[in-house]
Write a structure and sequence with these properties.
It is a single chain. With 134 residues, the chain is an all-alpha fold. It is globular, with a radius of gyration of 15 Å. The longest helix has 19 residues.
Length: 134
C-alpha cells in the first residue's frame, strides 16, 4: 500500500512539475563529457538494440521517427527534442549525448537508474541514426 502511494505521488509530481518548468534554451554539458568514449561506436548490433530501447522508453515523447511529436509531447510545455532537426547532434560527441540521456532535463527524466550504462550508449547510436535519416 505504501509503495502504491509513493508511486502515485511520484507520477503526480512528474506530471504537474513538468508543466511548470521552463527549459533552458541551451543544454550545457560538463566539459569532461566530450571525452567519454562510446564502447559501441560503429556497432550495428548495438544500434539495433538502441532502436528497441528507444521504442520502449523514448517513443512516447520523441515520436516514432524522432521528430519530438510523440503522444506525451502534446501535453508538455517544453517540447521533446526533434532528432531530425537538431543541427548540433553531428557536432556533439557521443559522450555529450550519453550525459544528456543519463542526467535528463525536465520534462525529460534521468535515465541513470532506468537504463544500464550499455543501454544508454546503445541509445546514443540509435539517436545518431535518427539524425542521419533526415
Amino acid at each position: 500500500m505504501k509503495s502504491n502511494y509513493l508511486f502515485l505521488v511520484t507520477i503526480a509530481l512528474l506530471f504537474f512539475g513538468s508543466q511548470t518548468i521552463v527549459a533552458q534554451k541551451s543544454w550545457a554539458v560538463p566539459e569532461y563529457t566530450k571525452g567519454l568514449k562510446n564502447p559501441f561506436a560503429g556497432n550495428s548490433k548495438a544500434t539495433t538494440e538502441g532502436k528497441i530501447i528507444y521504442e520502449q522508453m523514448c517513443v512516447l515523447c520523441h515520436g516514432i521517427s524522432g521528430k519530438g511529436n510523440g503522444e506525451a509531447a502534446l501535453h508538455l510545455d517544453s517540447k521533446p527534442a526533434d532528432f531530425l532537426a537538431l543541427k548540433n547532434i553531428p557536432k556533439e560527441t557521443d559522450g555529450e549525448i550519453f550525459w544528456k540521456i543519463t542526467v535528463g532535463k525536465p520534462p525529460m527524466s534521468s535515465y541513470d537508474e532506468l537504463l544500464t550504462e550499455d543501454q544508454r550508449w546503445q541509445l546514443v547510436n540509435y539517436i545518431r541514426e535518427l539524425n542521419k535519416a533526415k
